Each structure stands twice: as C-alpha cells, then as structure tokens.
Model the fold of this input.
Amino acid sequence: MLGIPLQTSTGGGTTIAIAVFVGQAVAFVIACWIAKRSYDGYRDARRSPLLWLALGIALLAAVPTVVRFLLPTLLGASSLTTTILATTSEVLGLVAILYTVYGRP
Done:
C-alpha cells in the first residue's frame, strides 16, 4: 500500500513541533488554572476534598507535561526515565482524584 506513513521515526517539521509545543503549553496552563481554582476553594471553605482534587489535577496534567519537556531538555534524561516518571505522576493524580470522589478525606 502506497501512501503517507502515519508514524515516522525521523520527526516532523517545524510547524508540527510548534503546534505540539503550543498544545502542551495550553494544556499545562489550563491544568494549573483548574488546580489553582480548586486550591482557592479549599482555602476559602477548608474542605479537604478540594485540596485532594487540586493535587490530583496537578499530578495528572501539569507535572507530566513538565517532566516530559524539562527533564530531557535540561538533564538529558532518557525516554524511559521520563515515561516512567510522567506515568507515575499521572497514576498518583488519578488516585488522588479517586480518593476525592470515593474516599473520606
């Protein structure tokens, strides 16, 4: 079958790299904003579920974005290391959100 491959190992063009970077930056900003709003709600109401929600959102969305971009760039971390750390953060974020919903924080 002839055609354009769906995935290549050589990387994409500059436009694609910029689009990915902008998309990740927007996702990071939105996640931080939601986490901050949850934390502000916790500070006002002193309800611990809001604190756990803020932590969960930060660990689920903001931390993995930072790990995937900064660790390889600044420290030269391997793909395996960044994947393990980002996935661990995502799982911990989901656990914190589940604790908010089903636990008794």
